[in-house]
Amino acid sequence: MKIATYNVNGVNGRLPVLLRWLEQRQPEIVCLQELKAPDERFPIDAIRRAGYDAIWHGQPRWNGVAILSRIGEIHETRRRLPGEGEDAQSRYLEAAVNGVLIAGLYLPNGNPRPGPKFDYKMLWFERLIAHARELLDSGLPVILAGDFNVMPTERDVYKPERWVDDALFAPEAREAWFRLVGQGWTDAVRHLHPDETVYTFWKYFRNAFVRNAGLRIDHFLLSPGLVDRLVRAEVDLEPRGWDKTSDHAPAWIELAAG
Q1: How does pLDDT run across 24-57, given as a tens digit for each residue?
Q2: Which Enzyme Commission number(s) are on file for it (predicted)?
Q3: CA angle, residues 179, 80, 217, in degrees to nearest 5
């Protein structure tokens, strides 16, 4: 079973890219982030024609997350983190699909730092850590997948000295990441590629993608029961080079049958 995460940076504006990638790679489950569309403008008809069902949590202009499946029903279990109000940003969506609980998330960017946006990032991170603990305690097979907006180590960022003041590389954000992982989660990419340079995001300017001046901010965290089923963890670089594409590349993992 192939499970992917993809920050599409606008699901309608990048729809041809998304559909082309879905047809090419055909993942069974996909977590999307940064839809930048209200619920009524999510392109469900096109998604269904591509062979996928979907649930989504949209928001006008910003944020937004979705879960797609082509292997069975999507049983939604949650669409915001505990502790968030009714006016929460659309950043979290959780569902059971084919025997696995999928938590698709878009953690706040947090820039500029310091400031209210960074404070919101860290509060959101704390709510995620608390809920993730509950998910682990449930004993269910769980995957946290999405754009975490954090580079855990210097290996995860091109020229880390240039990012010391950025919210994505802030000591507070990295410390929160390691507290989260330290609960018992496994970073799927680093588990299979411990020493490799792996990036999932490249800025649009200064020829960053061609120079491979990137960041690894899109992650999969696996609960203990899924680690032995992990077969592959990869990043699809090709779509990042397509016309009118996202600044992220799709990342995916493959699980053996349970």
Answers
A1: 999 999 999 999 999 999 999 999 999 999 999 9
A2: 3.1.11.2
A3: 45
Q: Is 53 a catalytic residue?
A: no
Query: With the C-alpha atoms ordered 124, 125, 127, 131, is the resulting torsion angle positive or negative?
Result: positive
Q: Looking at residue 164, what DSSP letter applies?
A: T
pTM for this predicted structure = 0.98
Q: Got the DSSP string for 68-105? A: EESSS-EEEEESS-TT--TT--S-EEEEEETTEEEEEE
- φ, ψ for residue 20, nearest 5 deg: -60, -45
Q: What is each CA distance from 80 to 63, 131, 170, 254, in whole angstroms?
A: 13, 10, 25, 26
- Binding site, annotated residues for Mg(2+): 7, 34, 147, 149, 247-248
**Domain 2-255 CATH (choose: 3.30.450.20, 3.60.10.10, 1.10.10.60, 3.30.2350.10):** 3.60.10.10
Residue 248 falls in the annotated catalytic set: yes
Q: Is 137 a catalytic residue?
A: no
Q: Is the pLDDT of residue 175 over 90?
A: yes
